[in-house]
Amino acid sequence: MSQTKKRQLRLAAFLSGIGANVQAWRHPDTASNSPVSIEAFIEAARLAEKGKFDFGFIADSTFITRDSTPYFLSRLEPITALSAVAATTTHLGLVGTMTTSFSEPFTTARQLASLDKLSGGRAAWNAVTGALEGHARNHGGEKLYEHSLRYRIADEYIQVVKGLWDSWEDDAFVRNKQTGQYVDLDKMHTLNHKGEFFGVQGPLNMERSPQGRPIVFQAGASEEGRDLAAREADAIFSGSVEDVPAAKAYYQDIKRRAAAYGRAADEILIFPSITVVVGDTEQEARRKYDEVSQLLDVNVAIKYLSRYFSFFDFSQFPLDEPLPDLGDIGKDSFKSTAEHYKRKARENNWSLRQLALYASNPSDQFVGTPVQIADRLQQLFEDEVVDGFILHAYLQPRGLEDFVDKVVPLLQQRGLFRTEYEAATLRGNLGLPYPVNRYVQQQDATKALAA
Amino acid sequence: MSQTKKRQLRLAAFLSGIGANVQAWRHPDTASNSPVSIEAFIEAARLAEKGKFDFGFIADSTFITRDSTPYFLSRLEPITALSAVAATTTHLGLVGTMTTSFSEPFTTARQLASLDKLSGGRAAWNAVTGALEGHARNHGGEKLYEHSLRYRIADEYIQVVKGLWDSWEDDAFVRNKQTGQYVDLDKMHTLNHKGEFFGVQGPLNMERSPQGRPIVFQAGASEEGRDLAAREADAIFSGSVEDVPAAKAYYQDIKRRAAAYGRAADEILIFPSITVVVGDTEQEARRKYDEVSQLLDVNVAIKYLSRYFSFFDFSQFPLDEPLPDLGDIGKDSFKSTAEHYKRKARENNWSLRQLALYASNPSDQFVGTPVQIADRLQQLFEDEVVDGFILHAYLQPRGLEDFVDKVVPLLQQRGLFRTEYEAATLRGNLGLPYPVNRYVQQQDATKALAA
Description:
The structure is a homodimer. The first copy, chain A, is an alpha/beta fold. Chain A has helices spanning 38-50, 70-73, 78-86, 105-118, 133-137, 147-164, 223-232, 244-260, 282-293, 298-307, 335-348, 352-360, 370-382, 398-413, 426-430, 438-450; strands at residues 10-14, 55-58, 93-99, 123-128, 193-194, 199-200, 215-218, 235-238, 269-274, 276-278, 366-368, 388-391. In chain A, helix 6 packs parallel to helix 7 (223-232) and helix 10 (298-307) packs across helix 12. The radius of gyration of chain A is 22 Å and the shape is globular. Chain A starts with 9 loop residues before the first strand and ends with a helix. The interface between A and B is large, with 69 and 69 residues. Chains A, B: Belongs to the NtaA/SnaA/DszA monooxygenase family. Chains A, B: Keywords: Flavoprotein, FMN, Monooxygenase, Oxidoreductase.
């Protein structure tokens, strides 16, 4: 019997939002208040669970200006929304974005551990460094730290959070009514962290969950981001798969970096976000895609674009002439996304209008019939370009509904995707190894040395 | 027709915990893991909602040591637990404790506003300053700020949070699919706070909820705490009503201070926590009370007591001789509680054992038949000693179940308590005035001046 686990496709969905296009809220079939409607989040989560998806994902950001596009202005905060979703689902993983800038690692560790406990081991943390200048101004600062410093802070922050999640061994809480023993204090551990950026004593006042500790996602695509992810993350929220060779190179690079840290290829999973539009015919799919694309207003699209360049004022450029070189604007903000947009504009000699519409509307890479979509997803998975996909519906809830009803059954028939959940925890469903408590590891190592 | 609103009794319940006695977890009828069981929180919330209670309350603290008693070692974090409860209830108010020390006002404002939005206007914040030395050591510090500085910080913090909650006027979000207008930017306001302790630009990325903004609770009993509460709080989580004249003096003092700030008596509501044990006969009630009291171990009780004195080591005193004067220990921690315990010990010439058991077990003030309990509650309410009560069940869920089934109907028959919720929001049910957005107030004032 072979010991090799067969690679399994993973599926996930954005729970928030009104659609991948920034003006999809205008479509008659979508609730225009979805970003603040917990009913919409719960509906998306239940659809995802019906489809046996691995997890629901909530992105985040906080800084807004008069130029922010609709989606950003008012939105549910991830940890509250996921806790509400937890109470109304049973198997879906719950991935929330929380920043490592301008927050306290003790509080972040605690809220995630509490979500993990109350959901029965389904929580995950998408750790981001925060990318907008204005973020600092909501937290007593004036400027964002520069890119590489943000990553050094994030690194130490993640170490602290994981350390706090090991405050208790798995079986520390005895709760024996007969003997009166509530806890085994030998299984309580105090972190006593004193680092460059943080001082955190511990222990955390939360026992471990059935999955040991929450899963960690990272989204960085820069050199620093890749290295941190390869070392610390269980999963990566990666960029677009529009450029397949580039996505494959990224995939291989991450797995290679992880191997250098002694990790197996299946201990770090890579998930791009994609937008799927399904039709019974190619024509129907294309019509649905166009129907939403046409809602876009170029002025709103330019505002959306400028967010990725620290709210750079694009109005100085004519709408329909080729864009000049954009230099290094955006280098300390959403670095990789800004670079991607600059490269696309340069390579295609795009005008401002073309770049803005490109940035504000999902690509048409996954527009087609159920069989066409299933074929493309299968190919990207089998070619090791991705480990799975996070669906950003082109319209909520229709985009997800169509996918669950029409594409998931095909993926199941092909033996690519589960027909039932394998486990009650997110870690179990993702097939990730159980994280042995660091203090138990140390004790085991000491014992082995002594033997 | 009279314009005077009849005073209405308010009822609430602690959602967390295994019982008011620190060792109630050993009782056969209670789930020993209640502090980390969201099912237990939800069960308590549903019972409270069945009883038409105004709100459920979650207390909090984070710093633990080897000497912490069971309840503190591992517990759900309030904002996550309340969000899960929100998704499984429809009318119950949701009061969460969050500290103004070692946290970011923007994040606190946002999480509470998000809970408020997703619950349809049922959130409240119990703002505390944090009272344990070790709290600082989990957040990069060494020592807690001294008591009055903590209150100055809390004061500015609450101002910032309320300011952020006014970032948007009530009707700022238009979301008109026909015209394409998502928001009216004239109704967006930027706080631009630069104070002694905090710099927060804003706006908050969350629109107002149906109750305008979350309710604010305060729990301080010191001079600084009373003044802050009288000025800023909608409600107070007050101390014990064991000493009725002292509780009445407190009630009058708070209402007098509020009046000095131009507030009506019914704009600030006072809620002590009480433990009720109901029996069909007096004997049965006493038997139930004794059954739980007997679970107490004096060593655990001493550990519990020491927490209110910054983990002072009481083992230096003999168990059964009168305690010496305790001097000023505890003055920078749970100041008012420590003072209360010292006074009780002095007045009664108590031994360490007596004081520890007193601190660790609820008083027997509300042990009796349903009629006896209803009589006592009615008296305290009508004598203006309290505006309502927060029930800390002697056993979860039995204590709450008994009260809802046997005492609530009596209070309803007497016309003291509602038989149906009056409103969908916590503010509406508590009869508190709607908070007009500060920027609208300013505009109205300017218009009045011009007219």
